[in-house]
Design a protein that fits this description.
By secondary structure, this protein is an alpha+beta fold. It has 16 helices and 57 strands. Belongs to the WD repeat WDR3/UTP12 family.
Length: 1002
């Protein structure tokens, strides 16, 4: 009989305020709440900065498989959040403030994304919604949902997505390195996508023609940040050097004379494709690269915030186009006056007469003209020095506290995300423009920017309680299986697994390397530090009971109890000072508390890395792993040697013994896990468990099942009796520093390098080894497809001939991605075509026979339509790409029949059928022109698709006019809240979108 195991599913993931993989972004709230969205591993968190609570946790089972979040974008109205993952997938979440159903991400009703896109072959690095202006009425802002999203990935590709239809529109093979920022904006009647990359190039694409219209070069290093000002007229970029570069959008100078603004060379500006370089300004402190650029409007002025990878940030004031032109004229006037003085001085020296002097001055004025420069648009007004290195910094849109209005000062609230799992809000005071002119430094005739002092700013709030500042190196599970104890650099935290909240936080000196619950109820916690100290805390009150600062002279790497929690009387510690110490804890367990008493000290020949006390033949045995790659066992009563275990080539980092005391498992830095017999010390099996060092392992209680965690970021499940690999526990990311299991084996907890604490619970769902092997083979096949596509795309970008050769021309390509699902969809469609062909041939020869049961009682046209509808919209094109020419011709024939006026059951799928026909004709265009497919079939398709599209166009025009009329009427009526009506319209649209029907309002 095949042995079945039980699956483990992740039920909790907590301990991170904001991941360092992506920046924090503010969210516009209808109630003006200070909300910020950030990534926490594979979860999207929305924090209310005023209360310090997480009001939304957006994640589910699929996001845990997708990997960590690398990019986040928020729509202009704040109602849609986009998250990009390491596997190349993108998910859109609907956020509507305080929604009770969205507060927990891992409950029975996990939140589902609005739509999921999967087209990138590598991790998503940046996202951007289309920039749309928000309308206003008497009730407030009109929340307009975006219809398009642009994404960039680490493979250098840009994909534009249609949110309404849930599919990719096109793909741009833009860059040769990872993208750092994408922007999508509309100017007049044109739409553009601007991208920046680590290859130091900025590219501009026209959405209508789907071509690259401009390539901006000149950066000497990677372009790390890029942003448009609120008027979509000034593009600002930041790199690794000290310069902030500016680019002016064409036709931005319509409000004043462009000929004068460009020094008389009007043609050079009009023939500029999209952007024109206008120079750069210098950062005040430029020791590190730029990490963030952000614009905001406050009290009638526009500000730009520039953050760098060190502790510095700088605030610039941004002038409007008219004011920039006025500043250019003043700058030109000052230069003319200065040069006129030099000409007059030269005239006096050479003795020119008055007429010659006037002619020289007139000639100089006619030839002297300055163009608009970056310094005309932006100038520095404030330098900020933080106490920590910055991950990102931006302006806060909501109101954290009531802003004080003043004629001479403006308050700006800044969201600061340091690199230590913290979110901070600071307040900076900006002087008004009039006050800045009075306090301007330097000479009046000098055109240098105003440089203020490096000022400290006031910190308003620090959100750091729900997480550690550094890696969690140790984790312990309480006897109630619902409480976790974690230790990190200078802090010991107690967590509730059910609510995923931090109950209590305790501070101490040093870095916590090991923890242990003490007592039957787990009310006492012990932590060993890197400096050799032991600290004992009362977890109920968070007070320090006792401490031994010099328990060891160096690091305490491990600690354990000599028996079960309710019977233990000794605490065993091992450190790098080559000693194993036994501490009496009887006094600590009393109500009054007491000091730890050192009972015994066992000297070792090398540093002690791990200690464990087990019961062997009714005698307590101490198992110790040493730096010399050996493991030794001693009797606890006499401390006599019992066994020695040799075989590892590198130090043993972790060990554990099964509950019955029969098997010892050791994990080493040599990437292996060895299983030993505790009776004779024989090595039963050596398993090549991981691709990196094994850092932690634990037996499932009362079984011989083993869990191992490694530096390679994986958590694996093993059967120590059969020496077989069962499965990889999904959801683990980052180096697994510590593992803990409950007494009944129902719960596994892990602490990793990404500062996340993860908890898995055993389910009743069986797991079979054969199914797991098949699933791993499918994953390997899909990864091979992705790698093959990446290689072909890289060849195409270099100009080689490949399956995507149009990439070398800068044109758009298909937005899909080959995956296992698309291959299976294409195979199902090919099988359906073959089945229908055989059925039609059989009917032509023997019409009296019964229909093939595989056809499900459907006609050939209905069966093909059913197969097409089962393929996801985003995967349809890639599935059609697999079909050979003969199958494509047959499918076009069936589509022609389905689009005929006589066919009534295919009306709801008209759009899908037309889309399939267009893609197949484009894909096999050369064969069609060569006559491989009937010309009559193509002409019939042309007539029928034109008839259907005309009907859809008329219907859509009627509905668009009706909806605009309804919107105007709702805005004008005072007794109907527009926001509620807009919400009802959105819910109606969302239901239609999910049902995948083309329902139209009449």
């Amino acid at each position: 009989m095949v042995k079945a195991y039980l699956k483990y599913e992740q039920v909790a993931s907590f301990g991170v305020v904001a991941s360092g993989t992506t920046a924090c972004l503010p969210i516009k709230s209808p109630s003006n709440l200070p909300l910020v969205v950030c990534a926490a591993g594979d979860i999207v968190l929305v924090w209310n900065l005023r209360t310090g609570e997480s009001i939304a946790r957006l994640g589910n089972l699929m996001t845990r498989k997708a990997g960590p979040i690398n990019a986040i974008a928020v729509s202009a109205g704040g109602e849609t959040i986009a998250s990009g993952y390491a596997d190349g997938s993108i998910r859109l979440w609907e956020f509507s403030g305080y929604d009770e159903d969205m507060k927990a991400a891992f409950d029975e009703n996990e939140p589902e994304p609005l739509v999921t896109f999967n087209g990138h072959r590598s991790g998503v690095s940046c996202l951007a919604f289309e920039k749309i202006s928000l309308g206003k009425n008497s009730k407030g802002d009109i929340r307009i949902r975006p219809s398009s999203l642009v994404s960039g990935s680490n493979d250098g590709d840009i994909i534009m997505w249609n949110i309404t239809e849930g599919k990719g529109v096109f793909r741009f093979p833009a860059h040769n390195d990872a993208l750092t920022r994408v922007l999508y904006f509309k100017r007049e009647s044109s739409s553009f996508i601007v991208s920046s990359s680590k290859d130091g190039i900025i590219k501009v694409y026209d959405v209508e023609t789907q071509h690259c219209v401009q390539t901006i070069v000149g950066h000497r290093a990677e372009v790390w940040a890029m942003e448009l000002d609120p008027t979509n007229s000034l593009l600002v970029t930041g790199s690794a050097d000290a310069e902030i570069r500016g680019y002016l959008l064409r036709n931005v100078t319509d409000e004043f004379d462009p000929a004068k603004a460009t020094g008389g060379d009007l043609d050079s500006f009009e023939h500029e494709t999209v952007f024109r370089a206008i120079g750069s300004v210098q950062r005040y402190i430029a020791a590190e690269r730029v990490t963030s650029l952000h614009f905001t409007e406050c009290d009638g002025e526009t500000y730009m915030l520039v953050g760098s990878a060190d502790k510095n940030a700088e605030v610039f004031s941004v002038r409007e186009a008219k004011k920039a032109e006025a500043h250019r004229k003043r700058r030109e006037k000052r230069k003319i006056e200065a040069n006129q003085k030099e000409i007059r001085a030269t005239s006096e020296e050479k003795g020119w007469d008055e007429s010659l002097l006037e002619e020289k001055l007139r000639t100089f004025r006619e030839t002297m003209s300055l163009q608009l420069d970056m310094s005309d648009f932006v100038f520095s007004v404030r330098q900020i020095r933080m106490s920590k290195r910055l991950r990102s910094i931006c302006f806060l849109d909501g109101a954290l506290e009531k802003r004080v209005k003043s004629k001479n000062e403006t308050e700006l609230h800044l969201i600061v995300q340091p690199k230590d799992n913290v979110i901070e809000v600071h307040k900076a005071i900006m002087n008004s423009s009039k006050k800045r002119r009075k306090e301007k430094l330097g000479n009046e005739g000098d055109d240098m920017q105003t440089r203020g002092n490096v000022n400290e700013i006031k910190k308003l709030i620090t959100l750091d309680f729900p997480g550690h500042r550094s890696d969690v190196r140790s984790l312990s599970l309480a006897p109630d299986d619902n409480t976790l104890l974690s230790a990190s650099d200078g802090s010991l935290k107690l967590w509730n697994v059910g609510t995923q909240k931090c109950i209590r936080s305790m501070k101490f000196d040093g870095y916590g390397l090991c923890t242990q619950f003490v007592g039957a109820e787990g009310r006492i916690g012990v932590v060993g530090t890197k400096s050799g100290g032991i600290h004992v805390y009362d977890l109920g009150s968070g007070t320090l009971i006792t401490e031994e600062r010099s328990a060891h002279t160096n690091e305490i790497w491990s600690m354990c109890l000599n028996d079960k929690l309710y019977e233990a009387d000794l605490l065993v510690t091992g450190g790098s000072d080559k000693r194993v110490c036994m501490w009496g804890i009887d006094e600590v367990l009393t109500d009054k508390g007491g000091k730890l008493t050192r009972r015994h000290v066992l000297e070792m020949p090398d540093e002690v890395l791990c200690v464990k006390v087990v019961s062997q033949r009714d005698r307590a045995v101490l198992v110790v792993s040493l730096m010399d790659s050996t493991v030794r066992a001693f009797f606890m009563d006499t401390f006599e040697p019992y066994l020695s275990f040799y075989g590892h080539r590198l130090p043993v980092m972790c060990l554990d013994v099964s509950s019955d005391g029969l098997i010892l498992a050791t994990g080493s830095a040599d990437k292996t896990v060895k299983l030993w017999g505790m009776d004779f010390g024989d090595c039963r099996r050596s398993l090549r468990a991981h691709s990196e060092s094994v850092l932690s392992l634990a037996f499932q209680p009362n079984t011989h099942y083993l869990f191992t965690g490694s530096r390679d970021g994986t958590l694996k499940y093993w059967d120590a009796d059969k020496f077989e690999f069962v499965c990889e526990i999904e959801g683990q990311r980052g180096e697994v520093w510590s593992l803990a299991t409950s007494d009944d084996g129902e719960i596994i907890a892990s602490a990793s390098h990404d500062k996340l604490l993860r908890v898995w619970r055993r389910t009743d769902e069986p797991l079979f080894l054969e199914e797991e092997r098949d699933r791993r083979m499918d994953e390997m096949f899909e990864s091979a497809l992705v790698e093959e596509d990446l290689k072909e795309a890289a060849k195409s970008k270099k100009g080689d001939i490949g399956f995507m050769k149009d990439m070398s021309k800068g044109e758009a390509a298909a937005a899909g991605k080959r995956s296992l699902e698309t291959v299976k969809g294409g195979e199902r469609l090919l099988e359906a075509l073959q089945l229908c062909a055989e059925e039609e041939e059989r009917r032509a020869t023997a019409s009296d026979e019964a229909q093939n049961p595989m056809m499900l009682g459907l006609s050939s046209e209905a069966y093909i339509l059913r197969t097409l509808e089962q393929i996801k919209t985003a995967e349809l094109e890639e599935a059609l790409h697999i079909l050979p020419l003969k199958a494509a011709a047959d499918l076009l024939d069936y589509c022609s029949r389905l689009l005929s006026p006589d066919c009534k059951f295919a009306r709801l799928s008209t759009e899908m059928l037309i889309r399939s026909c267009l893609y197949l004709i484009k894909l096999h265009h050369s064969q069609i022109t060569a006559g491989a497919i009937s010309r009559k079939l193509i002409s019939d398709l042309q007539e029928r698709t034109k008839s259907h599209t005309d009907k859809i166009r008329k219907r859509m025009g009627f509905n668009s006019a009706a909806l605009q009329f309804w919107q105007t009427e709702l805005v004008e009526r005072d007794d109907t809240p527009f926001r509620d009506a807009a919400a009802r319209v959105h819910n109606m649209k969302r239901k239609k979108f999910k049902s995948r029907h083309m329902g139209f309002v009449r």
